[in-house]
From TrEMBL:
Full protein name: Uncharacterized protein
Protein origin, superkingdom: Archaea
Keywords: Membrane, Transmembrane, Transmembrane helix
Segments passing through the bilayer: 19-36, 42-61, 82-102, 108-125
Organism phylogeny: Archaea, Methanobacteriati, Methanobacteriota, Stenosarchaea group, Halobacteria
Amino acid sequence: MSNQQVEDALIKVDRWSKIIALFFAMGMFGLATLLADNATLNAAIAAFAAIGVRISIPYFASISGYGLDQAPSQSYADTGNYHHGAVGGGLIVGSFLALAIMTVETPAVAFAGGAAGGVVSMLLLREGLPSE
C-alpha cells in the first residue's frame, strides 16, 4: 500500500474519531451529571474519556486493517512515538473509574483513584495490545 493511501485512510479515520469522541463526551457528561452534581469534575471526566476515544479509534482502525497495512498507528510517521491504544484505553478506564469512585467518595479521591486506575490500565494495555 502506498504512503498516500495510508495517509488518506488515517485522515478519514481521524475525521470520524473527532465526531465519535464528541458524542462520547456528551454522553459521558450526561451520565456523570446523573450520578453526581459536581459539574467541574463531570466535565473533566467527559473530556478525558473523549480524548481517550479520540486517540484509540485510529489505533484500533490501523491494527484491524481498515484501509491500512494492519500496523499500529504509532508505527506511521507523524503520529507520535507512544502506544496510542494503551494511552487511549487508560484514559477511558481512568474516566469510568473516577466516575464510579465519585458516586461514593469525595472529588479528590475520585481524581486520585481515576488517575491511578488509568495509569495501571495503560501499563497493562501496553503489554497486552500489539505495538509492532
